[in-house]
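quick one before i forget lol
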Amino acid sequence: MTANTAEKLEFAKELGTEAAALAQKLRSEKSGNFVETKGLQDFVTFADKEVEKLIRARLAMRYPEDAFLGEEDGFSDVKSGNIWVVDPIDGTTNFMRGLPEWGVSIAYCSEGVIELGVIAAPDLSCLSWAQKGKGAFLNDQPLAVSDCADIAQSIMLLGRSARAPLGDYLAIIERTVTGGGEYRRNGSAAVSLLNVARGLGEAYYEAHLNAWDALAGLLLITEAGGQFQADQLEEFLTKGSRVFADNGKLTQQLSEIITG
């Protein structure tokens, strides 16, 4: 890793912490127009917008040569092989209702490779980060995926995408339970992916995720010893992707449960 990339990791950790604190502050001060509805059970808050503005402004000032992709305002105009991919608040519904499973997700990619990932989940007192080839960490402690290789002791963390049929999601739940496993859904892809990297679950699956929801967490998992399946980064950035990430011990069994 170059010194420049290592510097970017430290900056991203500081920025994630600052952004998460701003989100908490704005939530505590929320006014009557704090929440807007984008679609069915799809919300954006004033905090989502302000946190993304903060992150975008900080990165543009520090690294003006880098591109930016954020959930709320899309791509920057900068043309670069280096890009920051940001979800200002992943798990907005949880955030606005006071549930703790939400986080600020910041990833940095260079020439088609995820190089850095940071997830700040302040209501869970978590700051996690990873750098390619250098491991993954949570609050300065190294992360490792679960070593569970028994489907009967496994937990599949599931996300539900409104862009995929509900019946497919319910069928996965049924196959998981009848196959001897268990499942959980917490409403935040970033936190769920972090939980796989922490060894709190064996796998995460969602039929369609946007890049800003997933890239930081996917790097955490691979650097913690796991693996993932998704589309190539260029397509992921523009169209989103199916995502399956796991500890590498139950890949075949869980893949069969997912595909039926």
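fyi The helical segments are 3-28, 46-62, 92-97, 166-178, 189-197, 211-223, 233-239, 251-259.
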